[in-house]
Amino acid sequence: MLLLLVLVAYLPVIRDGGFIWDDDQHVVRNPVLEDARGLVEMWTHPESLPQYYPLTHTVFWLERRLFGLDPRGLHLVNVLLHGLVALAVWRLLESLGIRGAAMAAAFFALHPIEAETVAWITELKNVLSALFALTAFGWLLRWWRRGERRAWGWALLAFAAALLSKSVAATLPAAFAVVVWWLDGRPGGEGVGSKPTGAHPRLRRLGLGLTPFFVIGIGSGLFTAHLEKVHVRAQLGLSFLERLQVAGHAFWFYPWKLIWPHPLVFSYPRWQPDVADPLRWLPILLAVACLAMFLLLRRKLGRGLVAAWLVYLITIFPALGFVDVYPMRYAFTADHFQYMAGVPLLVLCAEGLRRLPGRLSFVPVGLLLVLGLLTWQQCGIYEGPETLWRAVIADNPSSWMARNNLGLLLLERGERDEARRQLEEALALAPGINDARVNLARLEAEEGRPEKAREILEEAARIDPSSSVITYDLGLQDLALNRAEDALRSFDAAIAIAPDYGRAWVGRGHALAALGRVVEAARAYREALRVDPGVPGAWNGLGILSLREGDWETAVSALQRAAASHPEAVDIRRNLGLALRKAGRVAEARKTYRELLSRHPKDGLGWRQLGNLEFEAGRWGEAVAAFDRALAAGERGAALDLKLAWSLLRRGGQDAATWDRLERLTLSLAERTRGRNLQVLELLVRLEAGRGRLGAAAEWASRGRDLAGEIGRREARARFAAWAALLISGKMPQFEE
Could you tell me if residue 268 is left (phi over 0), alpha (psi between -120 and 50 degrees) or otherwise beta? Predict the structure, then answer.
């Protein structure tokens, strides 16, 4: 029944949930999920993952094999695991003799504060780690009560699995020690299967048994903190006193959200600590006072109340701000931080409700119904990134992060006016933070103002001169301004800041290619692939270099690798089609273009390249259709019009409308080329002859003869002269195809 309730409450996210925020980095575009090599790499190279949780990413790897990139399957796994965690909570509480175990587990299963963990695909790490941690706790309890060494071994193995899923499980041994202290204080609790008897031997046995857990737990936590600092670059820059204020605020925040879960926001307001403000010290002082009071009055209040608050404090400790974690850059609190920490507090709630008079026995059921409905409602914001960011802005208008991310999303979708408004709002809210500034620069660049984009980026660089990303973006704008030397200096500066920054190496390759230093460019692209195998643009750059050098097969090979790594990249698919066409693999090129255009039907350049392919293959009808689609999508140019005109002429079966269109197109070409293009003149000869106007055709043939003689094209001069002579004599020439 509990599992069924979870499935019903989370049905909206199973059915309609999408990818949000860093799902892209962890799941959608994570190169280690692509093949078996990635499975090895994720375990052996910590920095190959956004966070070193290899067991979680192994599950992601398996999910990719089962579901591909269908988010419904991934959401279903998260929901089922949450259901299993709720069942594990229930069974563990029952084994501890807690009479409200089922009620507490049901509150945990259906409370909407847990929706952030369950509905966010990346937070698989939370539910997976919790399941292994609860399993380890159960085995430890069995070891403590029965003295089974095998149970201790299984507990250690499950604990290691929990840490490899998410290192927040490192708090488990301390929480277990508190539970043992509580059990020893219960009537009959001291001797429940524990050997040897006596306080000191039991304490020694507990210490020896938990020491390996503390060692690997602390080691895992320190390693994660190190990676958060140097790999994820989560550096809050807070003093110890400021961290104490953050901890006090967070300590009370989560119990309040358990009691009153409204509003639940994906990104809460981030308040600023102020050590000089005495009011900011009240939360931490109150927390210390309450815990001290519970300890002093433990005989009167019972150890249970103290134990519940201590377990809560221990479990929530990694999220109190003493360790820098990346989300705290945006908010010091987050619903998913307290996923398991809330359980002891829910136990206290269940215990209180259990003692209600019989006439109020409906209250827990009513609460569960309300919690389930709130969870159902909360799932709606996880439909996709736009829904999520708009929901955050509605509840937290001061969230510069939500406005920045929404602006970036709108920018990628082409809604530039609304994107600019959101990005400017984000910048006004956080003028000292460069995220929105960098995205505004991107918007200016996409609107064809690279100078303005560079000006914005220079301001960003003044605020943060150590940012490799900003320095790299400056290089991109230098490339757009055809300042290849300046671009090369910018990319080299970005590499000096972050030698493993793959995009900067790709940019260096682009700059060197623009300078004609092909060998060095190829070396830069290969270095990019060495430091970051999944970096966008490196294989594409190698492919383009090979195209320039006329090495068609090498170009095909490189661009196929690029397309496999970035299946949605339109430019890579176009380049691959071009390489296949140059290599003579026409059928494969046609298939590549068709696949691209089925997903991006408004890609004018793609239609133009397909038209060129059909033109070269002599498939005139298909060429006309492709060129028409290119024109409809906004492609322009004399070369396009010329090939379209030739395709219309050679297609055959022209009706009057086609002849009229061909005439307008050809006369326009003649005007644009000022009558000095032999192909256009030949078109005019054929057009006029085809319409029966031999005199006009003879005049164009004479012009072609004169122009060909002027520019030294003997064969063309002879051909035009022969046509002119026949046409003047009233005869129709035999035009060659």
Answer: beta
Nearest to 467 by CA among 443, 490, 489: 490
CA distance 487 to 466: 17
- What is the distance in angstroms between the CA of the first residue and the CA of the last residue of the chain? 77
Exposed (0-12), middle (13-18) or buried (19+): which is 211, by Cβ within 10 Å?
Answer: exposed
Q: Is residue 255 part of a domain?
A: yes
**pLDDT per residue as tens digits for the range 256-287:** 999 999 999 999 999 889 999 999 999 999 99
Of 363, 378, 393, which residue sits at a domain end? 378
Cα 7 to chain centroid, rounded:
26
Q: How far, in Å, are 22, 55, 112, 391, 393 from residue 327 at the CA level?
A: 11, 22, 20, 18, 17
CA gap 392, 394 in Å, rounded? 5
DSSP sequence for 539-577: HHHHHHHHHHHT-HHHHHHHHHHHHHH-TT-HHHHHHHH
**Residue 504 in domain:** no
| Region for residue 734 given its phi and psi (left: phi exceeds 0; alpha: psi -120 to 50; beta: otherwise) | beta
The percentage of residues in the chain with a pLDDT greater than 90, rounded to a whole number, is 67
**Tokens 């488990």 belong to which residue?**
172
Please say which residue of 344, 363, 378 terminates a domain.
378
> What is the per-residue pLDDT across 309-368, written as a single tens digit (0 to 9) for each?
999 999 999 999 998 888 898 999 999 999 999 999 999 999 999 888 888 888 999 999
**C-alpha Rg value of the chain to the nearest Å:** 34
Residue 133 lies in a domain: yes
In a domain, 37, yes or no: yes
- The count of domains in the chain is 2
Domain that residue 335 falls in = 2-378
Q: What are phi and psi of 17, to 5 degrees?
A: -65, 145
